[in-house]
UniProtKB/TrEMBL annotation:
Name listed for the protein in its UniProt record: PTBP3 protein
Signal peptide: none
SMART domains in the record: RRM
Domain RRM intervals: 138-214, 288-362, 405-480
GO CC annotation: nucleus
Entries under InterPro entries matching the protein: HnRNP-L/PTB (IPR006536), Nucleotide-bd_a/b_plait_sf (IPR012677), PTBP1-like_RRM2 (IPR021790), RBD_domain_sf (IPR035979), RRM_dom (IPR000504)
Organism of derivation: Hemiprocne comata
PROSITE patterns per the UniProt record, alphabetical: RRM
GO BP terms in the entry: mRNA processing; RNA splicing
Residue runs in coiled coils: none
The UniProt record lists the keyword Cytoplasm: no
Gene Ontology MF terms: RNA binding
Length: 482
């Protein structure tokens, strides 16, 4: 546009090893700016003018700067999915000795250059032609998967290094993996250097990144598992239009803690659906036992709490208080699942009341002594076949979504009709707004009810419902709507 032409000008400065960068995105770090230069050679100095959204980058040689300019002139580089404009500076070198932020820039330079030096040998060996950028396609393995890592999370993290064209996610050998294609091999190179070995969230979800042997990814569907960001006309797997291209602000992540392990490239807290700390919590954060209060004692049962909280983890024990039946203790398999449950269920309306969930002071739910009558208020579900997350790396970890008015149904016998499914939900008191079988798989469907509260209650009443032909209905919250 006009701004770009004005910046580039008709009289470009003569080549210099110092490059002038304009329109740096707010919040961009020194390391991110340096990453634009490292594929072309060593970066020797940096001056960030954050107030003006500008920077000066000094390369080790004029030849490296010329190579970088020749590359970026037809292909505008991006930081944080925004274009950055580059031209030669009138300066021959940068003198930053007396500047206040010099130490920060030098620390970033030292860190990036040391990582680059360690990575060059490995990267060269991976390239078929011995080059530094063997492929624009990365293979990403996520280890220690405590929290769900969705396609949107990957898009947001990897987009900071350039335009992501395509992503395919899958589970192989009980490991969550992804293939991710950039517009340019250098974007892939920079992402690998910066992210390999990093954890998305503190202490878990560690990324292991290699270059793929594939030159191009073929994406057939735009859905939660695969996306071609250059083809918005592709159908989703059930024959309906694809989701809109993701933007950072559009996704609430189903994770209750702020990711800090990736530092400047981590997903920002604004994208979170909940926080780890719960206002007013008197219990112990990191505990696996939850205190659930403000329940409707006329409607709630231990089984109902088991089914509802079981959407976000494996419930081992439930105890409804004998003298205070609007309160209950729910023991999850571990603290991570307890945090997920708090994140998604605290504040939801259930049977006419707003449910409160927080950490309990108790470390375990005590079972009644043998012969003691507990009026059926304490139940042990440790060995229940209905646990969703027993198997490590289960696909259910990828399908954890906040409560919504749309439910995902599966394990439906092919003989069951649309009207029969609608009537099943209507008989629980729900208002059925829409229903649709998946075109590719009639064992699955989406149903939209009158409210989130109706969906919560229908899930409690109908999950594992016997539909005949040895089929028990499976229900979870859907990310999409109909």
């Amino acid at each position: 546009g006009i701004e770009k032409k004005k910046f580039k000008g008709d009289r470009s400065p003569r080549p210099s090893r110092v490059l002038h960068l304009c329109r740096i995105p707010r919040g961009a770090t020194e390391a991110e700016v340096i990453s634009l230069g490292i594929p072309f050679g060593k970066v020797t100095n940096l001056l960030m003018l954050k107030g003006k959204r500008q920077a000066f980058l000094e390369m080790a040689s004029e030849e490296a700067a010329v190579t970088m300019m020749n590359y970026y002139t037809p292909t505008t580089p991006q930081l944080r999915s925004r274009p950055v404009y580059i031209q030669y500076s009138n300066h021959r070198e940068l003198k930053t000795d007396n500047l206040p932020n010099r130490s920060r820039s030098q620390a970033a330079l030292q860190a990036v250059n040391s990582v680059q030096a360690r990575s060059l040998t490995t990267t060269s060996a991976l390239g078929a032609d011995g080059g530094l950028c063997p492929s624009s396609v990365l293979r990403v393995i996520v280890e220690n998967l405590f929290y769900p890592v969705t396609l949107e999370v990957l898009f947001e993290i990897f987009s900071k290094f350039g335009s992501v064209l395509k992503i395919i996610t899958f589970t192989k050998n009980d490991q969550f993996q992804a293939l991710l294609q950039y517009a340019d091999p250098m974007n892939a190179y920079n992402a690998k250097i910066a992210l390999d070995g990093q954890s998305i969230y503190t202490g878990c979800c560690t990324l292991h990144i290699d270059f793929s042997k594939l030159a191009n990814l073929k994406v057939r569907y735009n859905n939660d598992k695969s996306r071609d960001f250059t083809r918005h006309d592709l159908p989703s797997s059930d024959g309906h239009p694809a989701l809109e291209p993701p933007t950072a602000a559009a996704f609430g992540l189903p994770v209750p803690v702020v990711p800090v392990a990736l530092g400047s490239v981590a997903v920002p807290p604004s994208g979170m659906s909940g926080q780890m700390t719960v206002t007013g919590a008197t219990g112990i954060p990191g505990n696996s036992v939850l205190l659930v209060s403000n329940l409707n004692p006329e409607a709630i049962t231990p089984h109902g709490l088991f089914i509802l909280f079981g959407v976000y983890g494996d419930v081992h024990r439930v105890k409804i208080m004998f003298k205070k039946k609007e309160s209950a203790l729910v023991q999850m398999a571990d603290a991570t699942q307890a945090q997920l449950a708090i994140s998604h269920l605290n504040g939801q309306r259930l049977y006419g009341r707003v449910l409160h969930a927080t950490f309990s002071k108790h470390r375990t739910v005590q079972l009644p002594r043998e012969g003691e009558d507990n009026h059926g208020l304490t139940k042990d579900y440790s060995h229940s076949p209905l646990h969703r997350f027993k198997k490590p790396g289960s696909k259910n970890f990828q399908n954890i979504f906040p409560p919504s008015d749309t439910l995902h149904l599966s394990n439906i016998p092919t003989s069951v009709t649309v009207d029969e499914m609608k009537n099943l939900f209507a008989n629980t008191g729900s208002t059925v707004k829409a229903f649709r079988f998946f075109q590719k798989d009639y064992k699955m469907a989406l149903i939209r009810l009158g409210s989130v509260e109706e969906a919560l209650q229908a899930l409690i009443e109908l999950h594992n419902h016997d539909l005949g032909e040895k089929h028990h209905l499976r229900i979870s919250f859907s990310k999409s709507t109909i």
